[in-house]
Structure formats: structure tokens, C-alpha cells
Amino acid sequence: MGYEAVKESFSGGVFPVRIGKEKEEVFGGENTLPFHKFEGEVPNRPLIAYEIQDVAPEEWPETVRTVYEGVSEDPVKWARHCEEELGARAIALRLVGTHPDGKDLTAEEAVKTVTSVLEAVKAPVIILGSNHVEKDSEVLPRVAEAAKGYNCVIGKAQEANYKTIAAAAMANDHKLIAMSELDINLSKQLNILLTQMGFAKEKLITDPMCSALGYGLEYTYSVMERIRLAALAQNDEVMQPPMLGDVGMYVWKIKEVQAPEEVLPEWGSVEERGILWEALTATSLMLAGAELLIMRHPKAVEMVEKFVDELI
Amino acid sequence: MALSGVEIFKLLPKTNCKKCGFPTCLAFAMKLAQRQATLDACPDVSEEAKKVLGEASAPPVRPITFGSGEKAVKMGEETVLFRHEKKFVNPNAFVLEIRDTEEDATVEAKIDAVLNSEINRVGQLLRIDGICITNESGDGGKLGAVAEKVATKAPEVPVIVNTESPEAAEAALKHFTGKGAILYGVTEGNAEKMAEVAKAHKATVGVKAEGLEALSALTEKVKGLGVEDMVIDGGARRAGEILEQNTLIRRAAIKKSFKALGYPVINFAQREDGMYEALVAGLGVCKYGSIVVVSSAEKWKNLALFTLRQNIYTDPQVPMQVEQKIYRIGEPTADSPLIITTNFSLTYFIVSGEIENAKVPAWLAVMDCEGLSVLTAWAAGKFTGAKIANFIKESGIEEEVSHRELIIPGYVAILSGTIEEKLEGWKVTVGPREANAIPNFLKQKVA
Ligand code: SF4
Questions:
Q1: Same domain, residue pair B89 and B158
Q2: Is B19 in the pocket of ligand 1 (CB under 6 A)?
């Protein structure tokens, strides 16, 4: 019996999503499993956005905090640094300072930050709230309005607050991240609710919730694989938006990226450990189907881009 | 290819003698097809039938044992393409390459790196599983010398001998006779001689071809030479090719029961940049590599790769739970806060991660709630005041901490009263509802 390649083609595909104004980027758009160029179309590479914040990243571990020293106190400087020095293809601005337990910055302050960042860079901007359900539904509609015309991604809409956030994203012509917690049915349900209120499914990005390597990565990995199979093999349209891997935030808080080598000699250099942890979390999730990634360390981003070059 | 009951029936004696314990040969055949009976129950089956049925019932990816003794690694036996369908069976082996052109000191250092690579992570001992000795020099004497060094310093570590020269293979493999070594480098051109060497030393064969068609032909040829145990390489080196070949090999084996590719796959991930190399190795872990060869084994890299392998090879069907006990986060003392939550593993991961994030050492009491999250466990009556009180009393934590304050998740604030009632002398403090508020909560608490 001779060898015959078992190739698979699918009736469904992933929606391509185009973001940005002055400079545009497109991600998604494939009709095959992640990077399966040998049996389908993979028109776009995953998009990696550099994460910045409205307030200085005091909470970030040293490895990733120090690389932004001198620019990270000012979101505008920080955004420019990412675009001009690091070649960022997209910027993810997280309004973590608006969290009530933190600096509790107001929606007005958030609008100011967002507007100045949008004016400072050409690259597309992803605008993220502080992940506080109530505060996000107050802040995100305001910033979505202020960002009208920039074709941003707004996030994240969750089951508890999706209506106000989605309405604002829709009214101001942005794309929207829909997040639910590690369950394909919850993801599907939220996407259905969003489309029922008139939000175009082609403008959605599904966030099945990220996990770091060693901290539940396998759950995110498998939920992503299942969502992608639903999109391709079952041609399930509400599962066809591209997926987000919000990698940096989940990676740069775990023990493995912070514990110094003096304390845990068997873990080796903390610097390299942290950078690799972020990169490997990102590449694993890309292999499961993530097309939009939010990352922090420039060296990790650089390695992931190189890996994509090798895959495509 | 799996046979149907009727196809199997045609191969049986058809005497209905009942010696197998079934009323008819057909009934027995049906059970065989469902894998609820084994062929040896029929004493009269012909040799011919045994052969055909044996081949048809073999697992789609042949089981191979790499190495021998305690450090032996099982490979193959995989049954699915996606881990949510069913657990991936045998975790891949990580193998460190040592080239025979490297300085003595480097060779020694690499052997040490393998011997010292053991790390304990969530209860599992993980390590670099093997050494690949590569005949970069083309000189059999040099390869033999490195082989001898490895055999002396690391006699228990499984070894791959990587050469296309039968003479060099002999020089190296004689140090690993009967130890489950792999002789990699068997090609169309050298197959006969290499198979002889491998057989003489009871080694598994690593076959190498350009492309999967050539690879299938070669495994058939090697099988014809009397070698059954193989690992295979279709020549892929770039990440995109590795993904393609590994996927197509796994599909051919599982979806088509294509025997010629039903062997564990070996991937070569070596790169100049040792950190970048880990990403290519990670591709092998996620996507069907059974052996992943790397060029360096720094501790930080090992930890990341071992963790990935552990994640990918966990059983997706086992309820996601962690063991019930009091976990130490950081280095807690008698004054450190005590927090309780349920044993849903994700809850545990997130809560412990946030406590670490707070950089406030604490005691984390994880209570067995059959793997349910806080709210679901509470709703299901598994996370109740009485049960919590019991758990705290029996956990022995009263001897560890000098205070009597228990922090409970904000979602179950309602339990405060009952717990205080049942747990004499204790005060209950209601913590945040969401884990991401833990760092602030703890920092304020100890400030
Ligand atoms: S023992 Fe063999 S021959 Fe006898 S009934 Fe069973 S299958 Fe048929």
C-alpha cells in the first residue's frame, strides 16, 4: 500500500479582521488549521501587539519593567518607543489605572490618555479596560467614542457588561473583544448574544481567556482548538471570529518569571526564564489558533515573529 | 486498518466448537472487532489468520521503548490528533545532542547537564530523557570515544547514535548493547548494513528520508530486513515542514491505519540561538513529536519545555482538581494570612498566582470540592460553613499559625456566620470576589 497524504479541507473559515487607520493590519482569514499552509489558505500572519498601560507598570516584574525604563511613565512616549524603536505592528493600551482598587482614574482621564496615544502613533491601537466589570462599562464607551474613526479594537466585553460596551463599539465603528471563561459554550453564547444585538460577527474577536504556561495553558489550548474546529469543520459562523491570546498579562505575574535564581537555582536565570515563558506561551497558543496576541517583552515578541517566519 | 466482524469471521475455523467461550465463531469475531476479546481464546486459529489479525489489531502508532531500566521512555501508542478528544498517551522525550567534534570539556558539561536536569514540578520528576551522539566528524573513532564517555558517565541514560556510517555505528553502539539505544541515520543507501548493526546490538532503528513517500518506502524496506522497532524522520527541519510532516504522519497512522508511518516521530529542533530553539522544540511537543532533539539544556529552558510537555500531556477528561491541603505560598510564617478556596485546579492556579503576585507570603487552604469552583461548589452544598470548619480543624493549620483569622472568597460572604459558629475562637474575614483583587487586599492587610 503506497503512501497517500491525508489532506483536509474545510467548508468554514476564520473572518479576516482589519484594524487601524493610518497604518492597517489584518489578521485571521485562514480556511485551515493554524499554519496548515500545505492544505489551505493562510493569508495573514498572527498580529502581535505590544502592551502598554495608562499608568507606570510598577507591578510588572523587573525583567520586563526595566526594558521600558524612561518611557513607561508616559503612555505617549511608551507607545512611540514601541512603534519607532521596537517596530511594533500594533499597540495594546490597557487602562489598568482606571481600576477602582488601583488609581481609580476617571473616564475623562482615560479619554485623555487614549486620545493622546492615538495621535502619537500610526499603528492600530487595541484599547483594553481594567477588567473591572462595572468600571469598564463606564470607561470603555467613553474611550470608544473618543477613538471614533481610528478603527480600534475595544475590549473586553464580558457576559456581565457586554451590552453597553458593544453598543459603544458598534456606534463608533470599532472591533470588539468578547471574553468568557475557558468554556467553548460560554464563548459561543456570548458571541450569539452580541450578534443578536446587531453586532457584526465579522467584527468580533473571541477571547476564550488566556492562561500562562504551567498555569492552565492546556485549558486555553484545548478550548482554542475546539473553537477553531467548530469554525472550520462545522462551519459554525459565530465561532469564526479570530481569537485573542492575552499572553503578557497572564505570564508576567507567575512565580516562574519572578523567582530569582539565588532562591531557586534549579530553575536557572530568571531573565531568560521569563522571556522564554512569554514566547513559549504565545507560540503554543498560536498553534492552537490564536491570531491576535498581546505581549510585553520585546525579545519574546522578536522570537515569536521569527518563529512565525519559519512556520509560514 | 481495523477489520470488521465479518472480515474477521472469514479468517476463523468456522467450526463453532465453543472453546473460545462464545456460542459461534461469528459471535467471537464480533467481540474481536469490538476489542472485547483477544484472539488467543481460540485454540484452533491458523497461523495465517494470526498474522493478518495481529497486524490489524496493532495500535496505529507502534509502541517503542527508548532506553532500558528506570530511565526508559515509552513512546508511540497515540490514538488521537487533538488532546481534547482523549489523553495524549506517551509524553515526548527530550534529547540533548552531543557532537563528536565538540571539545572534551563541552562533552562533559553536556553529560552533566543531562544528569543534573531533574526538576520536580507539581509532583512529577522531569528530566532531559536522553543523549544523541552525533557523528559530525565522520570519523568512527571519534564517535566511539564520545560514546564510551557517555556510557561510562551516564550509563542509565537512553542514547541515540546518529550516524550514516555502519562502521561508526558499530564503534559507538557496542557501548549500548541491549540498552534500548536508537541507531538513527538509516537511509535508503545504507539500510542493509545498518539494520545488521542495529540487530546485533538490539537497537531501535531511526530511519531518515526526504519526504513521506520515500519514508514510507524505507520503513517497509527496513521491516523487510527484520527490524520492527523504528522511529521515523521525513527530513523536516524548518518549523513549517515539521508541522506539516508530523501532522500528515499522525493522520496517516490514525485515520488510515497506514502501517508504514505508524511509528514514533523524531524531530530535530537544534538552532544557533538556544532560547529560540525552545520554540521549535515546543512545536514538537504540541504537534506529535515523540523525540525532540535540542542542542543545549539550560535550566530555564528545561523548566519551560518540561512544563509545556506536562500541560499538553495531561488528561483532559480527569476533573481538573488539585490535592486538598494547606499550600504554602512564598515562605509563610505563623503570622501570615490564611486564605481558603476550592480545589478546582484553575481556581487554585489563579488564586495562588495572585497571592504570589502580591508578594505577601500566605497559607492557602485548598478544600476538596470535587473540582468545582467557589460559586458552583457553594451552590452544590460542597463548600459550606460546616465543611469548611471541619476541614480547617483537621488540617492541622492551628498548629502552624498563631492567629485565628480565616479569609474566605467574597462570593461566599454569606458563610461567615456559620463558620464562626462552628469554628470556635476563629474570626472570618471576607476577601475579594475576584482573584485579581487579591494583591491589593493582601498588601493592605499586612501594611
Ligand atoms: S474456539 Fe475458535 S473455532 Fe471454536 S467457536 Fe471459538 S472461534 Fe470458532
A1: yes
A2: yes
Neighbour tally for A188: CB within 10 Å: 17
Residue B319 lies in a domain: no
In this structure, are residues B354 and A253 in contact, taking their beta carbons and an 8 Å threshold? yes
- A228 interaction partners in chain B (CB closer than 8 Å): none
Closest atom of ligand 1 to CA, residue B18 = 5
Say yes or no: B82 and B29 in one domain.
no
The CATH class of A17-311 is alpha beta
The pLDDT confidence band at residue B1, using thresholds 50, 70 and 90, is very low
Residue B429 structural domain: 325-446
Any ligand 1 atom below 6 A from CB of B18: yes
Cβ neighbours of A253 in B, within 8 Å? 353-354, 356-357
Complex ipTM > 0.90: yes
Q: Do B341 and B412 fall within a single domain?
A: yes
Asked whether B261 lines ligand 1 (CB < 6 A), one says: no
Choose the final residue of a domain: B36, B57, B78: B57
Same structural domain, B186 and B285: yes
Q: DSSP letter at A161?
A: T
User: Smallest Cα–Cα separation from A179: which of A205, A197, A203?
Assistant: A205
CATH number at residue B31: 1.10.15.40
pLDDT in tens, A103-143: 999 999 999 999 999 999 999 999 999 998 999 999 999 99
Condensed to tens digits (0 to 9), the pLDDT of residues B264-300 reads: 999 999 999 999 999 999 999 999 999 999 999 999 9
| End-of-domain residue from the set B15, B33, B57 | B57
B120 and B214 share one domain:
yes
Q: How is residue A235 written as a grid cell?
A: 462551519
Q: Whose CA is nearest to atom 7 of ligand 1?
A: B25
pTM as predicted: 0.86
In sequence order, which residues have a C-beta less than 8 Å from that of residue A299 and are 6 or more positions away?
A275, A279
Q: What is the pLDDT of residues B93-105, one digit of tens each?
A: 999 999 999 999 9
First to last CA, chain A: 32
